[in-house]
Amino acid sequence: MLSTALFTCCISLIFLFPSEQLNHWSVKHGGDGWRVEKNKSVLEGADSQTCFVSSFGWCKKSQIIDLVQEGLWEHLLDVHQPPICISDWYAGRNDCSCVYSIKVQLLAADQQTVLQEFTMDPDPIPQWNDTRYYQVSHEFRHYGPGVRYVNFTHKGKDMQFWKGWYGARISNSSVTVKCDNLEPCR
Ligand SMILES: *[C@@H]1O[C@H](CO)[C@@H](O)[C@H](O)[C@H]1NC(C)=O
Ligand SMILES: *[C@@H]1O[C@H](CO)[C@@H](O)[C@H](O)[C@H]1NC(C)=O
Ligand SMILES: *[C@@H]1O[C@H](CO)[C@@H](O)[C@H](O)[C@H]1NC(C)=O
Ligand SMILES: *[C@@H]1O[C@H](CO)[C@@H](O)[C@H](O)[C@H]1NC(C)=O
Predict the structure, then answer these.
(1) Is 26 in the pocket of ligand 4 (CB under 6 A)?
(2) Among the atoms of ligand 2, which is closest to the Cα of residue 174?
(3) Which among 5, 60, 73, 150 has the fewest CB atoms less than 10 Å away?
């Protein structure tokens, strides 16, 4: 049963947040604030091996993605509700324990109403742990009509209150909208 109202789509939008500058983030600095450092272990397949390092008070940053401005359209979002995937990577230093947390919200046009939310508060990484990156990922589906923005927020700090930058180290944060499961292009 073919409907002429069905339009086609084969795009897969990716918003990758580079780990080199704080420019596009709305930022809250705790302790000595965020800073960019080189990696302490390799993140395979990441464009940039740098990371954002948090301090001894909660360092937090957010990005609001305007999905329509990025090329999606209201009918697509409302009717097809393409999966919206988020991914983030965090790591610790070997010499200090740290903690990381993430909250991602799908917001309505008023930028206030939360239509779906994903949060994760992993256990702290203990002192004398390794420096490898841990991934957090989530796929939003069937979120209902009305989604227009993604609010991507994460934060980190160290757990030993050490001056400087001993907190969670964050890299290769991304939001991907997958439309390729829909009708093929004409
Ligand atoms: C950082 O990343 C680069 C490029 O992948 C790699 O060569 C280097 O070994 C990494 N540094 C550490 C300390 O793992
Ligand atoms: C880094 O992000 C990009 C864009 O989302 C993605 O293609 C790539 O697979 C990511 N790398 C890792 C290691 O997650
Ligand atoms: C590092 O900490 C994580 C928990 O964040 C744990 O799953 C992992 O086993 C620890 N690794 C080591 C070497 O202690
Ligand atoms: C985005 O989420 C963060 C964390 O919950 C919140 O502080 C901020 O106000 C939110 N921004 C908007 C525009 O809703």
Answers:
(1) no
(2) 5
(3) 5
Q: Over its length of 186 residues, how does the chain's per-residue pLDDT go in tens digits?
A: 344 344 455 667 888 888 888 988 999 999 999 999 999 999 998 888 999 999 999 999 999 999 999 999 999 999 999 999 999 999 999 999 999 999 999 999 999 999 999 999 999 999 999 999 999 999 999 999 999 999 999 999 999 999 999 999 999 999 999 887 554 443
Query: Which amino acid residue places its CA nearest to atom 8 of ligand 3?
Result: 129
pTM: 0.90
Query: Which residue's CA is minimally distant from atom 2 of ligand 2?
Result: 172
SS (H, E, C) the chain: CCCCCCCCCCCEEEEEECCCCCCCCEEECCCCCCEEEECCCCCCCCCCCEEEECCCCCEEEEEEEECCCCCCCHHHHHHHCCCEEEEEEEECCCCCCEEEEEEEEEECCCCCCEEEEEEECCCCECCCCCCCCEEEEEEECCCCCCCCEEEEEEEEEECCCCCCCCCCEEEEEEEEEECCCCCCCC
Task: Evaluate: CB of 111 within 6 angstroms of ligand 4.
Answer: yes
Give me ligand 2 centre to Cα 172, in Å: 6
